[in-house]
Amino acid sequence: MRIQVLTLFPAMFEGFQTNSIIARAIGKGVVDFSAVQIRDYTKDKYGRTDTPPIGGGAGLVQKAQPIVDCIKANKKEGTHVILMSPRGATFNQNMAKKFAKLDDLMIVCGHYEGVDERVNDYIDELVSIGDYVLTGGEIPAMAIADSVIRLLDGAITRESLDEESFDNNTLEYPQYTEPFDFEGKTVPAILYSGNHGAIAKWRRKQSLLLTRKYRPDLFDKLTLSKADLKLLEEADSGIVPKWEADAIEKGKKFMH
Question: pLDDT-based confidence at 164, cuts 50/70/90?
């Protein structure tokens, strides 16, 4: 996959490209990532890419010409061009999965007070990462590129993608590491049971509970199965169900 970010500040992406999972994905050829300098395409004799808005107003607006020429110069047939914009749909995991299926993604970063309205005629999709204001589109572009790249084959192990937050509108279940007891807080006994069916059931229950508690907006979108409703009923009763107690009892020999 090729991902290009069109920006006035390509240096902001140097660390992004040279660390952790993203650096490994680039090194393995999983993704061809580049940050393209919009300023290289301006026809302004002083090298400017912005100007005060026509009609008055605060700040500076990015001119159409440098952005449009930068798009044209770097776009291929089939390239999907997105612009970071408060008008856009809010980015989510489903959108990340959609973008990860593309061969070529171009992300255009606005800056200052925004971009000339006519730039939108050269954009395929407007995307936002939330209802707040940043100094530019660079950080949102990194967030999108990161979430897309990690979904590409070879970027990380498939197992790491099997059960994640926001898949099926639920948050991921709690995760634990050694030691068993950390400052009086212990790992749930069920996780030492060795009963993978019971562990999966417990994790589903915890996922539902966490989603209901922290993201009721997502929980309200769920279509709960009879098994899900039973798990929630068990949790709300405060009583450890027989299937969980039996699994824990049989797995006590694995406890630390």
Answer: low
Task: Count the Cβ atoms, other than its own, within 10 Å of residue 141.
Answer: 25
Reply yes or no on whether the pLDDT at 161 is more than 90. Answer: no
- Gap between the Cα atoms of 155 and 23, Å rounded: 10
- 157: closest CA among 26, 44, 25, 42? 25
What are the angstrom distances between the C-alpha of 144 and each of 5, 155, 156, 171?
11, 15, 16, 19
Tokens of 191: 């996780």
Cis upstream peptide for 179 (omega within 30°) = yes
Write phi, then psi, for 188 (nearest 5 degrees).
-55, 130
CB distance 136 to 9 below 8 Å: yes
Helix 196-214 and helix 226-237: axis angle, to 10°? 80
Q: Residue 254 pLDDT more than 90?
A: no
Q: pLDDT above 90 covers what percent of the chain?
A: 78
On the question of pLDDT at 163 being above 60, the answer is no
Q: What is the pLDDT of residue 255?
A: 55
The ranges assigned to domains in the chain are 2-158, 163-254
Q: Does the domain made of 163-254 have the CATH classification 1.10.1270.20?
A: yes
Task: For domain 2-158, give the CATH number.
Answer: 3.40.1280.10
Report DSSP letters for 63-79, one per residue. Answer: -HHHHHHHHHHH--TT-
